[in-house]
Amino acid sequence: MKYNFSDVVNRMKPSEIRELNKMASSPGIISLGGGMPSPETFPIKELTEIMEFVMKKNSDLALQYGNTLGINPVREQISKMLEKTEGIKCNMENIIVNSGSQQGLYELGTVLANPGDTVITEEPTYVGAVSAFSANGLKMEGIPVDHNGMKVELLEEKIKKLILEGRKPRFIYVIPTFQNPTGYTMPVERRKVLIEISKKYDVPLVEDNPYGQLRYYGEPVPCIRSMTGGEDVIYLGTFSKVMTPGLRLGYTIAPEPVMEKFNLIKQALDLATNSFSQYVAYEYIKRGIIYKQVELNKQIYRKKRDAIVNALKANMSDISTFSEPDGGMFVWVTVDKNVDTKQMIPLAIKNGVAYVSGQAFTTNGTQKSSMRLNFTFGSVEQLEEGIKRIRKTINESA
Ligand SMILES: Cc1ncc(COP(=O)(O)O)c(C=O)c1O
């Protein structure tokens, strides 16, 4: 059989991270590549108890199809949790529960844009967003980030230019807190500018916030959705970093008209998100376990964040600059030398370490001398050794 594949899939490239994960799972390789939480943060005892409870008390509903937008008691708990943790005020009617926030990103691309349309992202941006938007046939225009996130002063000019070209962007996608891949956080002033520009040009603003609760140092910065004027912001959240990614639960908050369209697209995608996972999350929030777990995760990750930053200071400060994030899961390293981090990957694997190249987070092949390092998965010893191996690889590739 000769298969004729769609233009959309023919244009899509395999994710460097997925390819890398295959190599990085070989014994002896320290992986700083994937974006995985540490299994030591999984609340196994609590989840086992909850799962047994759900099966005993609620199996009729937990094993049944659920509402397309999500199970109402779960949506209600999410709304209460977000008010407590992020200061977000929203009704449960404005929440859709998805199979991870990754599915929320795909839905956005389908609901708010047509194939061939343009959206604005940060540059670099989350590789999964590139994949979700590409799968919808969208073009991405990146606005560079600095230590304070997206350079919003460039955004207005970009929007004006795109409008003149007849390519008005369909939405602006940002990860303002502990950005993936850079770890940078956008201060309040820039967040205000984003709200203003979004309103002025009538371009929806999308805030993706998987890492907001994982703050190890410093004062929290309010999420954009909670700020004055932020009521129309479309907000994505996830249980992946505060419960487990394996249960595949995320959510999107959006105004009523957008929610109606999410409802239609979600029916086409999978009818509804896993009911069992949702009932587990319901108990997990209602019993308050989520708040204790976040504190525990922070203790574990703070040590690892310090370990990787200290190892970078000891081994890499003479040849690179790197972020020193106050939270999240990633450090962004830019090597001074004219190193192509993508080309260097085979040598790094030979030396027993894996990372993701900067290019994987762009749509235009920039960020060649950068790399993203994950610090949540490996042990402190592995992080320290991993950085030494990266330094060795850079020396050898020079
Ligand atoms: C910025 C960002 N958005 C979305 C996701 C997807 O998360 P999930 O589908 O597990 O909820 C991730 C995962 O790493 C992420 O970093």
UniProtKB/TrEMBL annotation:
Cofactor(s) listed: pyridoxal 5'-phosphate
Keywords in alphabetical order: Aminotransferase, Pyridoxal phosphate, Transferase
InterPro entries: Aminotransferase_I/II_large, Class-I_PLP-dep_aminotransf, PyrdxlP-dep_Trfase, PyrdxlP-dep_Trfase_major, PyrdxlP-dep_Trfase_small
GO MF annotation: an example: transaminase activity
Domain Aminotransferase class I/classII large positions: 57-390
A Pfam family assignment: Aminotran_1_2
GO biological process, one term: alpha-amino acid metabolic process
Keyword Metal-binding: no
Subunit structure: Homodimer.
Family affiliation: Belongs to the class-I pyridoxal-phosphate-dependent aminotransferase family.
Database matches in PANTHER family: AMINOTRANSFERASE (PTHR42790), KYNURENINE_ALPHA-AMINOADIPATE AMINOTRANSFERASE, MITOCHONDRIAL (PTHR42790:SF19)
Name the record gives this protein: 2-aminoadipate transaminase
Record organism: Cuniculiplasma divulgatum
